[in-house]
Structures
1.
Amino acid sequence: MTTSPATLEILQRGPARDTPPRTAFLYCGQGSQTYQMARAIYDAEPRFRACLDDLDAKMSRRIGGSVLARLYDPERRKSQAFDDLVYSHPAIFIVELALTRTLEAFVGPADCLVGSSLGELTAAVVSEAMALDDAMDLIAHTVRELTRMTRRGGMLAVIAPRRAWDEWPELRGCCDLAADFGESHFVVSGRTDQIEAAQAHLERRDVGFIRLPVNHAFHSAEIDDLRPAFATDALGIGFRPPAIPVISCVTCAPVERFTLDHLWRAIREPLLMQRTVGFLLGLDRFKAVDLGPGSTFVSLFDAAAGLRGGMAAYRVLTPLGDEMSNFRKAQQALLAGCSFERGRLW
């Protein structure tokens, strides 16, 4: 995807200094989800609860069971691995979307959206590029196809700079690079035996890593059997140009029009997280809210924006039990001095 001349003009001109910061909503996918995520907001915020209940009812008809019953099962703790794809995949989507609709009720729509992996599907719906029913049909279809696949896999967050991937051929021989977070860490993906070999290699080097709660090797060759599921017209999915600009973490550029092929790339190709955040911050000044599990974008945004005034990123979902407080802080920050008249970025 090429960058339009209008975008290049904005990048060359640099961020505007005489206008309030724009707003951005950020969405991620598998890897940081937890049981009980957003439970405090669900209990305290009627708008969020009503929206999430409605989305759960729609999704439950497609997958044959309540996502919320599994997500908010009182017997399951945040510390347990939420790795049942049948429920975790739709849970991420409906929580991100319900948080968005609730925040929009207070502060209006965002000026820009950033999507990473499954988060691109959320962004497609929020931007009105894709109908909610179509997105839910695609999620249910994807889950069914993935659960039919016999191969299982996993993902590791490696606590080392991205350049280590290039310097450690043993690691490259084990698995695929799934996500690049620059200096802080990177993520690798592969079959279960490949991930175990990667863990052994990292232990020998005394390098820290975190096993993500994922049982499929997203962003690797191990899910290539899923590709035909994104090439079928059987679902009758249609797309429109986004009404709100969406930036993709696989292209580090605006999505001019969503397609099934692009949504496949979003879960198959490496995520260029640091470069995408850099692209966003090259367009204008932003106050951003990370609405995905684990607040994947916040540290990247803070590091990139640290030397620029008037910009900040706010986390909402965390495993620390302060999610309602986080939501209110994000809401108040966006209400303070932001303009909600949506204008073109490119």
2.
Amino acid sequence: MYRNPIDTLRPPAIGLLVTGCLNAAMGFVTLVSGLTRIAGLTGHETLPHEQSERIGYFLGTIGSYCIAVASLLLAPVIIYAAVQMMKGQKRSLAMIASVLAILPLTSCCCFPVGIAFGIWSLIVLSKPEIKGFFNGEAPRQF
């Protein structure tokens, strides 16, 4: 029985789309909350008294902002690749987006979602019939 490759690609592509949207949302929320904290809109914040605790506090804060910026920069790539994957186009970009979704540095909070959909997408994109579809060897029925 013939199954349309687009039907095989659509569910993991939707998962990548959800991952990209979650990454963008979490990155945005993290940056906005950080900016309100820096601007002093959250109230008076007391820093730890110990030097080592203060260093850890600043490193953690800077690290979370870096991850938020990475999420905001990479989320559009994941989203665009997911849309192209749903159309059966740009397999290499879909593979890159799948790997980006798996990496914990693109978004710590969405990492479990990203790893599940990223691995699923890689498995689907590695199937010979899907590779053939992207290479134009299979019929493009919609």
